[in-house]
Fold this protein.
Amino acid sequence: MTLGDRPPAPAAFTRAVESLRPAEVRPEIELEDIPAPQRLAPFSAAIGASVYRDDDDELAVGRLILLYDPDGQRGWEGPFRLVAYVRADMEPEITSDPLLGPVAWSWLTEALESHQAAYSAAGGTVTRAVSEGFGNKAEDPVTTELELRASWSPTEEDLSGHVAAWCDLMCLAAGIPPLPPDVATLPRHREDPESFRQ
C-alpha cells in the first residue's frame, strides 16, 4: 500500500452502505448518492434527497451521512454514527410557534421508533431561519425555513429502517403525512437528464 492509499473498507461498513439505498421510496422523494465528508471518520458514505410536490416544487432537501470508525469515537456508543440534515420551507406562523423545536425533534424520534430503527446517543438542533432581501433583492419575498441537524448511533448494520425514518422526517417537514403501513409506494418518474447516463 502506498502513501495516501485508503485501507479496504471493512465488511461491516460495506454491508451498512448497501442498506442505505432502499428498494422502494415514497413517490415524492428522490434519492441520490452524494460525496461524503472524509475527515470525520476512517470510512464514510452519504445520500441526499429532495421532496417534491406533484407540480415539481421542491419542498424539502436533506442528506444522511454514515460514519464508521472500528474503534468508535467519543459520544458514539459504537462504531457507526448517522448524521442527518433536513431543510424545509415553512409558513411564517409555523416557524414562530415556540413548540416547533420539540415537535420537529419528535418527528425524528417517532419515525425511528415506527421503523424499529434501534439507536442510542441521539442529539441535534432545530433552527428556524428568516431570509429577507435588500438592495436589488428588496422585492424578493421573505422566506422562512426549518433546519434540523441530528446524529445518532445505530445499533445494527442494517440501516434501512433509519433511512426510512429520515425519509419520513423530510416528508413531515415538507407537510406531507407518513404513509399508512399497508400502502405501497410507487416509483417517481421525472425528466432527469442524469437518468439517461446510466
Remarks:
- The first strand starts at residue 29 and ends at 33.
